[in-house]
Amino acid sequence: MNHNLNLLSRRNFLSKGIGFMGTMVSTLVTSSAFGQVLNLKTPRQTLGPFFPDDGDPISETRENLDFRLAISEANDNDLTHIKGHKEYAEGQVVYIKGRVLFNNERKMEPQPGAVLIMWNASASGRYNHRGDMEATRFQHPQSGEWIERNLDENFQYWGRCITDKDGHYWFKTIVPGFYPVDIEKGWYRPPHLHFMVTAPGIPQLVTQLYFKGNQIKNEKLIWNLNAKDNILRSPRLTSKEQENIIIGYQKDPDGKITDGLVGHYDFVLSY
Ligand SMILES: [Fe+2]
Questions:
Q1: Looking at residue 40, what is its pLDDT?
Q2: How many A from CA of 206 to the centre of ligand 1?
Q3: 194 counts as catalytic
Q4: In the predicted model, is pLDDT for residue 5 greater than 50?
Q5: Active site residue: 44, 126, 149, 192, which one?
Q6: Is 127 a catalytic residue?
Q7: Is 168 helix (H, G, I), strand (E, B) or coil?
Q8: How far, in Å, is the centroid of ligand 1 from the Cα of 122?
Q9: What is the DSSP pairing of strand 187-189 with strand 179-182?
Q10: Which of 194, 210, 236, 264 is catalytic?
C-alpha cells in the first residue's frame, strides 16, 4: 500500500470522525515552568500507519514475553535499551515526563492506572514496521546529502508506561529522525513522538508531540520542518493547540536526570 495514501486517508478519516474535538478548547489559564499551556485539552493527531503491530517482519521487539499482551504493550518505557543487548540506541537521549489528567469541567483530575503507549522512528527516521519500506534512502532537502533510513537493532521503537497513583508517567527515548512523506511536494515529517493514552471511562487519546529547544541537535532544521508539517499545522488545530504539542527540552531543572534532556507534558483528556 502506498504510504502517503495510507497516511492521508487515515488523516481524512480522523478529521471527519473527530474533527469536532478541535472546537472543544478551554481558555488559557497559565503556563507551567516548562512553558506548557495548562488546562488546554490535548489536541488529537492521526495515529499514522506505523502503530506497533504483531507480525512485523523486521526484528520484532518483545521484552515482556507474556504472549497474551499485544505487541504494542510488550515493552517497557526505556526505548534506548533492549533487555539483553550490550549496545544502546543511536541518537540524542531525551526524557518526556508529566501526568495524565482528566479535565472534568473546571477540575483537573490525575488519572492513576492510565496506559500510555509511545512509538517513534529511529535516529535516522525509520520505523520498525512492515509498512515502512519505501524511500529508505532520501536526499536531505537542504544539503542534498543522502540519508539512509536504517533500522537500529538496539532501539526499542515502542514502549508502555502505566501512570502511578498521582497520574505520573515517563519515557526515555531518542530524538527521532525526520522522514519524507511526499518528496515532490517537499513534505517531511519533523521529529515526533506518537502516543496512545487510555484511561478507564474516558475516550482514548491519540496524538503526537514535537520538539524544540536550543539543546536539541538540528534545532533550526526541526523548527523549519515543524513550521511546514501538514499534520502539526492542520487547520483543525488552533495555533494554541499547535504550540501546546511542541515540547521544549532542556537539562533537568531538578538535576536528577543527567543522561539526557528532559521535556515535560501533561496529557489532558476530556469527553
Ligand atoms: Fe510518525
A1: 87
A2: 12
A3: yes
A4: no
A5: 192
A6: yes
A7: strand
A8: 10
A9: antiparallel
A10: 194
Distance, CA 83 to ligand 1 centroid (Å)? 24
Q: Which domain holds residue 146?
A: 3-269
- How many independent structural domains does the chain possess? 1
Active site residue 179: yes
**d(CA 258, ligand 1 centre) in Å:** 27
**Residues 20-54: b if buried by 16+ CB within 10 A, e if exposed:** ebbeebeeeeeeeebebbebbbbbbbbbbbbbbbe
The 3-state secondary structure of 100-149, one letter per residue: EEEEECCEEEECCCCEEEEECCCCCCCCCCCCCCCCCEEECCCCCCEEEC
β partners of residue 115: 162, 198
| CA dist., res. 256 & res. 260, Å (int) | 10
How far apart are alpha carbons 234 and 21 in whole angstroms? 13
Q: Which three cell numbers stand for residue 151?
A: 533500522
Q: What is the pLDDT of residue 129?
A: 92
The CATH number assigned to the domain holding 113 equals 2.60.130.10
pTM of the model: 0.86
Closest CA to 133 of 3, 246, 268: 3
